[in-house]
Each structure stands twice: as C-alpha cells, then as structure tokens.
C-alpha cells in the first residue's frame, strides 16, 4: 500500500489496518458494537474493522426510520468470495430493520466497457448473481436490483457530478489515472447516491459495505454528497469496511483478476476444494518446526477461509486459530478440513441458488417496474 | 484562436479559415461543388468552407445508399442563430437523397448538468426546438430525434470510449480541461457514432455539420471510430464546417453565452429587430469617410445576417456586399433593411413553428418507439 493512497483498482495487501484510521479518518467499529443485538460473524470476528457514520444508520434502526444498504457487482464472471463478503454485510444490515431497503447495482455497462461482455451475456450472469445473493439470505421483499444499462438515473447523476468535480480533487483521491477510471468512479458515486433521489424517497442514511481498499470511492461519494447537498439534500453516505482476504496463491489480496487466488460460488465443489488443498499457508518449513513455533495464522489464507466464511461458528474459528499458533494443528489436516467445508458449502449453495433462479428473475422484473413507476 | 488549438467551448473568432486546412487537415469544399445539384446558400455563399470525407456522403447520394446526418442541441434556452445554421445544413443534406436519415440529439442530460435545467423544463423546450427545425424544413419521415436522458446507447458508448481513450489523447485534442468537459466530449462522440450501431442499421456514412470551432469533437469521434473499428465496423464520420457568425456586439463570434451577441428564433420580432438596429457594424467613423473608403463588410455582423440567413437570394447578399464596400450603402439604411427582414422572418417562423408543435410531439414519440423497438 502506497503511503498516501489506497488503490481501489490495485491488488496490494493492507498490512496495517490501524493506519487507515490515522491517515484516512476511518473510525473503528468496536465502540459501536454494544449498539447491536446479535453480531454478524463479520463483526464478532473483527472482519468489519472500520466505519464512517455508521452511527447514523444505527440511529435509523433504533428509531425505526428508513435507510438503505447499497452495493453492487460487475457481472463479468461469477460471484467471487469478495462479492460474498460484501453480500454478507449487506444482508446482515438489511436484516436489522423492516425499514431497510437494499439497492443492488449490476454494473453491466462497466463490464461491457472493461471486458467486452455483451449485454445479453451479462443479463444471464445477472440473474445467476442475484440468485447467489438470494441464496445467501437477501430478503427480496425489501430489495431493488437494477442494471446500470437500464438505469438512466445513475448516468444522469454521474454527468451532473462530472461538472462539479475538479481534476485536482480526483487526483488527490485516486492519483493520476486514465479518464476511464475517473469516469467509472463518478458512475459508482451515482450508484451510491441514487437511493437518496427524490423519486426514490429522498434523503436517507445509506450504508455501503466495502473492502478497505474501496475507501477512495466512499470519500468521493461523500465529497459529492456535500457539494450537491443544496440541490438534492444528500446525507453523506455511511460505510462499513471489511478486511481483505488473503490470496490462496500467497502474497497479495484475493482478487478476481487472479482467478487462482480464490474461487467463485460458481466453481465446482471438487475443483474449489482442490484449490484449497494446494493453497499457500502460514505453515513452517517442517512439521517439527511448526510444532515448536506454531503456525502463522495471521498470514494464512486457509485460516482466512475459516474466519471469513466457513467456520461453523465463532468458537470454531477461534479454535482453528489457537490450535494453529500453538502448533497443535498441522497444515495438511487443516486444509483437509477447510476443503471439506468449502465442498459442503458449494454443494448446498448450488442447490439453493438453482432453486432461486426464478425468484431472481422475479426480483429483477419487480425492481424494473418499481424504478420505472417511480420515475413518472 | 490559439495557434495550436481550436476551442469548442470558447468564444474566440477565427480570423484565418485557410489555416484550418494547413494546421488541422480540414479540406476545402470547393473542389466538390460540381458534384452537387442545386447548392444550398451555405455552399453558394462560401459559408460552408471546409469538410472531412464529405466525398463519402456524396458517393452514398450518387449510389442511392443509406447515410445519416447527425446533429443536436443543448435545450438550455431557445433556438439560436448558430443552431439555425447547423439545422440549415442538416436539412439540406437530408434533402439530397431519400436514403438520408437525420439523427438529432437533444442533450438534456448536459443541459441539466451545466445549467441545472430540469428534465421537465427541457422536455418542453425540446418540443419547441423540434418544431423550430420542422419549421426550417426538416422532413419528419426520415428523422430520429432523441433525448439523451432516454437513450442509453449514448451513455453506454461514452463509457466504452472512456476506457480506450487516454488522457494524453484528450489533452492533445482539447488541452488540459476539467473532467466534465472531457466527459461531455465522450458523450458527443457517442451521439456522433450512434447511427452506425448494429441495431440502427450498422456502419454507414454519417455527416456532421458543425461550426469551425467544433472540429476537436470531430477529430475525437474519428479517432474513436478508428479505435473501435474492429468491434463496431465504424466508418470515420464525415463533417462539413461552416464559418462562425460575428457577434452583434462586435469582436467575438456570436454565442449563446452572450445573449446580446445575437438572437434566438424565440425572440419577439420587435425586440430582435431592435437588437439589429443597435448592432456593431463594419461602418466608418463618418458618412463622408464611408462614401470615400467603403464599409468593411468582412468584419460586419449585419452583413453576416444577410449572408448567413436573411438575404432573399445570393444576388441580394452579393449586392449588399458590393454596395457596402463601394461606399454606396450606409449603415443606417442597411440595418433598417436587415431589421425588416429579421422581423418578417421571425413573424413567419413563429406562425409556422406554432402550427408544428403537434408534429414535433409526434416526431418525438415516433422516434422513441423506433429506438425502443430497435433495441429489442
């Protein structure tokens, strides 16, 4: 990580999460934990480590006022473990109140521009991805899912924003970049601020769950919300930040750009568990050494699989960690166990998802109708 | 005019049109004049002075093949004399063949972003502006008029283009600008290349009539057409360039940004002719001097009114010029005559336009239906 900058388009690891607080003003989550009822596994395991203005969302929960949870994905492949993390947060924060509405953006315009994926292909992909989220627990009754290619609000807003934004402001946040990336940042700001448009119920708290490296997008959206406050009445969007998962290939963060660094919820259970078995680990050079010194769970992507996703509960995750660092858990058996959990999860997930494809199409159609009617 | 650059967003005069040829590669129109039947007044009076690839459009006329004529306007006020010039060219080139289709973009997204004009207001303005063009002679049977706010194709393409374009390329064409202007240039490139999309009939010659200062947009669109040739099969768009009209206030080119520098087709006939009467002219300090030396028609915005718009025919325009430079025509009488022509034109135009408001709405609705069906 560059000393002065987070790179939302890069694939560097973040070594020191506390620096994000001192340098970028991301606040810790821990002081707010007492305001929650049952904690999500992201909260109880310290995966969600930071926030901006999360209190505003919790106030809405307490006062039974409307708020939105906003996220999205680029349908250029299948649902990756990183998408699952964001979805897990989104679903948890939707579950906190009957007044929560999820806005989910399928960035098919960007997928087309970046990867040449045709709208017909992204359309199929979009249905599968929505089914993935439903299988993870999204409540379709309080969700609006839209494709960027059908939603002029986002494009209109990015055009409006592009007029107010200066090159200096973008350079300060993102560094010197090609205009395509700046534009995509403005489009994302359009996505983030859309739930506050007058025809969609007007200003309200909006929570955006993101990986720590995506903070520049949050800062831009908050800056734009302030600049256009007079016109739209925007509240600055809130954010909750999760840690980045380590790559199975070692070294960097898990990334869509390096498929072997993780797996997707579309991968075959056998193939995915095989990838787990051949993963980089935080193990020592020899079994003897590992027994003596303990494993290095903190740099181990296999431990991350337990902690971030597949441990059956918090105690399980803690036990894996403790056994590892004490040297009583060897990498071979640990990977075997993780591979088994991954295989089981994918088998179950595929069954759930395939049964929800019709519901996904229904949600897309219902959302399209809602957004069209709201625009009248 | 900057030595190295044309500024599509500025309001400088162009003093030496021949330099546009040597510096920017705009070709003269004159060698092609023999290929036309009846010349438009823009062609016969040397108002259209330059072109790029106009031959490709004339080939289509000769071979009875389809081609498009593309233009547009930002509905942030009323139809200005500059809009009329572009419309005159567009209508003339539509009239050359039954295989010509006009694509006309109502840039309401940009009007909203730049001037805060709401979509409801621009919608009303758009109907009036379309009626203006119909009153000037557009054939609605071969015209597609769309609002940017309803046309995702343009937004999709500008996103696609933004990925291929580099900052250096934009700086070379436009100089260092704010991102909003770069983005608006990419949106205009989307407008210009839209008629060649597969669902709108695929690659074809497209003629864009523009003022000389708009050449950077043409160069960008041609560059992008080449870059995306493999994917879309784009032909480089053709252009025809008209001279810029002098401001009634003297000095600069007529501009929407300086309302007193011209008038709109919406202005009251009395008010507009009064503006003509108080116009800057190319007259000498005294009547005696003018009789002796002759007037300076070449720097006179009143002469431009005759030449560009209101002379009843070419002979009339030539006579005004000759009398002026010979010193037999005094500015007072010349302005009186011009004011009378302007008053008469506006009275007639208002009658014609008001009778065509229903046709304008019909054309907008028909176009919307056509574009929606083509997208299926």
Write the layout of secondary structure elements.
Two copies of one chain form a homodimer.
Chain A: H1 17-24, E1 27-28, H2 41-44, E2 48-52, H3 54-63, E3 67-73, H4 81-95, E4 100-106, H5 108-115, H6 119-136, E5 143-147, H7 152-164, H8 167-174, H9 179-193, E6 206-211, H10 215-227, H11 229-232, E7 238-242, H12 269-277, H13 287-293, H14 301-310, H15 314-326, H16 331-355, H17 357-374
Structural features:
homodimer, 376 residues, alpha/beta, 7-stranded mixed sheet, globular
Please give a structural write-up.
Chain A is an alpha/beta fold. The first copy, chain A, is built from 17 helices and seven strands. In chain A, strands 1-2-7-6-3-4-5 form a seven-stranded mixed sheet, sandwiched between helices. In chain A, α12 (269-277) packs antiparallel against α16. The N and C termini of chain A lie far apart (46 Å). At the A-B interface, α5, α7 and α9 of A face α5, α7 and α9 of B.
């Amino acid at each position: 990580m560059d000393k002065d900058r987070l790179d939302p388009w890069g694939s560097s690891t973040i070594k020191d999460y506390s620096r994000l607080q001192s340098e970028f003003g991301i606040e810790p989550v821990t002081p707010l934990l007492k305001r929650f009822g049952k904690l999500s596994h992201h909260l109880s395991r310290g995966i969600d480590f930071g926030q901006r203005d999360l209190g505003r969302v919790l106030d809405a929960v307490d006062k039974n006022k409307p708020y939105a949870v906003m996220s999205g994905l680029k349908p250029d492949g299948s649902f990756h473990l990183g998408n699952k993390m964001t979805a897990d947060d989104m679903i948890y924060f939707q579950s906190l109140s009957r007044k929560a509405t999820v806005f989910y953006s399928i960035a098919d315009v960007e997928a087309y521009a970046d990867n040449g994926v045709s709208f017909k292909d992204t359309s199929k992909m979009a249905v599968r991805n929505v089914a993935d989220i439903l299988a993870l627990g999204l409540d379709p009754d309080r969700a609006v899912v839209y494709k960027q290619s059908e939603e002029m609000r986002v494009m209109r807003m990015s055009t409006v924003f592009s007029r107010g934004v200066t090159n200096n402001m973008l350079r300060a946040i993102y560094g010197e970049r090609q205009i395509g990336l700046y534009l995509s940042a403005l489009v994302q700001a359009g996505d983030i601020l859309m739930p506050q448009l007058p025809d969609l119920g007007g200003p309200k708290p909006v929570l955006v769950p993101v990986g720590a490296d995506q903070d520049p997008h949050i800062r831009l959206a908050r800056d734009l919300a302030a600049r256009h406050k007079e016109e739209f009445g925007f509240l600055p969007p809130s954010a909750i930040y999760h840690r980045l998962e380590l790559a199975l290939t070692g070294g960097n963060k898990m990334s869509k750009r390096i498929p072997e660094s993780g797996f997707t919820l579309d991968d075959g259970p056998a193939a995915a568990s095989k990838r787990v078995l051949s993963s980089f680990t935080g193990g020592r050079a020899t079994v003897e050494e590992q027994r003596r010194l303990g494993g290095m769970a903190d740099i181990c992507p296999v431990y991350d699989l337990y902690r971030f996703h597949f441990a059956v509960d918090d105690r399980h995750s803690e036990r894996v960690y403790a056994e590892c660092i004490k040297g009583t858990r060897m990498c071979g058996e640990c990977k075997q166990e993780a591979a088994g959990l991954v295989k089981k999860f994918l088998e179950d997930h595929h069954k759930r998802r395939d049964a929800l494809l019709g519901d996904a199409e229904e949600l897309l159609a219902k959302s399209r109708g809602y957004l069209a009617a709201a625009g009248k």
